[in-house]
Amino acid sequence: MVEITEIPVEGYQCVKRAIDPVSGLHAFISVHSTVLGPALGGMRLWPYASEDEALTDVLRLSRGMTYKAACAGLNLGGGKSVIIGDPSMKSDAFFEAMGEFVESFGGNYITAEDVNTKVEDMGIVARRSSHVVGMAGKSGNPSPKTAWGTFLGLKATLEDVYGSDSVAGKTVAIEGAGSVGSIYADFIAKEGGKIIVADIFAESAERVAKATDGIVVGPDEIRSVECDIYAPCALGGSLNDETIPQLKCKAIVGAANNQLLEDRHGDMLRDLGIRYAPDYVVNAAGLINVFDEMMPGGYNEDRAMAAMEKIRTNMAAIFAISNEEGISTAEAADRFAERRVQAHLDQQANA
Ligand code: NAD
């Protein structure tokens, strides 16, 4: 029997801890908000050093999902689950216990794969819960969609910075030649953009450079190369006190999560005249894609692709808020999301 305990956290709708002595499961699920709809967010497995660290992470991530879904125009709230452990702990009993935990939210939390969990694991979770998306045979691998959405964000940013959304002749410095970065590079190169790429695995960078007729630089050089766009597509925190002064780009458009190490780094970029496309706005296409599984009739790729176009118009709206209200684009994105949630609450109150 999984022991499930609710932990009251101010500003969060429902946070719970689960412990299962049989399978060794020790996990948290946080539902930040369900104002716009059920809270969707992935199931992360990570060797957190402490319970506090895991709780802090699930709170931060679930709040982030509320903002991401609100900006993307989806009728979804924000939620997330984190499991303390590493992939060696995986077993059927472990994920079945997690299914029971997910089910305890009665549909207010919907899960999907995330760091260290896989599509197959979600199949096991689904034995005990009907609130699982992104399983085999449904909306598929999100990375190509995320890359496409980031490319749409690039177009909106080029329009803002150069007055034209043309990628031709523009140089994009891509940090991280992984699942998203490599496909993003393809889209850019196909429209005549020039690629500079770096990865901690030189072979990955070389593969992308070969496919796009681009050039490879070292991971320490990518942030200081002359380029139009710097595209963080590796890990978070790459925009910080040390790296921002090195940048020689006009704008930043990449897929990595949590690119700004701290909120104030958004202001720092604004002061330097570097246009930052907020990460959770441009990397939302994977979420838009998986959300389509929940639409009437089930997943429809054309409908999902059409919904991703919103990333362009959202970016234009966020740039406008940043200009009109004299704030960073990161703050403008937060306000854009908060206003959508508030408008929904006002509508409900007036109904
Ligand atoms: P991935 O693991 O396939 O690729 C990341 C790449 O970055 C790897 O090739 C890795 O070697 C490289 N890398 C790591 N540290 C580096 C460094 N310091 N310098 C240069 N390269 C480095 O991951 P992904 O799925 O392509 O995701 C990339 C980023 O986008 C992540 O931050 C992820 O959270 C975010 N994201 C991904 C998706 C998606 O659909 N996959 C959706 C939203 C956000």
Summarize the structure.
This protein has 351 residues and is an alpha/beta fold. It has helices at residues 51-71, 92-103, 119-125, 143-162, 179-190, 202-212, 264-271, 279-282, 285-291, 301-308, 310-325, 329-350, and strands at residues 3-6, 14-20, 25-33, 39-40, 43-46, 77-84, 109-110, 171-175, 194-198, 215-216, 229-232, 251-252, 275-276.
What can you see in these coordinates?
This protein is α/β, with parallel strands linked by helices and 351 residues long. It folds into 2 domains: 3-58 and 76-125, 3-Layer(aba) Sandwich (Rossmann fold); 143-284 and 312-338, Rossmann fold (3-Layer(aba) Sandwich). It has 12 helices and 13 strands. The strands form 2 sheets. Strands 1, 2, 3, 4, 5, 6 and 7 form a 7-stranded mixed β-sheet that branches. A 6-stranded parallel β-sheet has the order 10-9-8-11-12-13, sandwiched between helices. It is globular, with a radius of gyration of 20 Å. The mean pLDDT is 96. Bound molecules: nicotinamide-adenine-dinucleotide. Nicotinamide-adenine-dinucleotide binds next to helix 4 and helix 5.
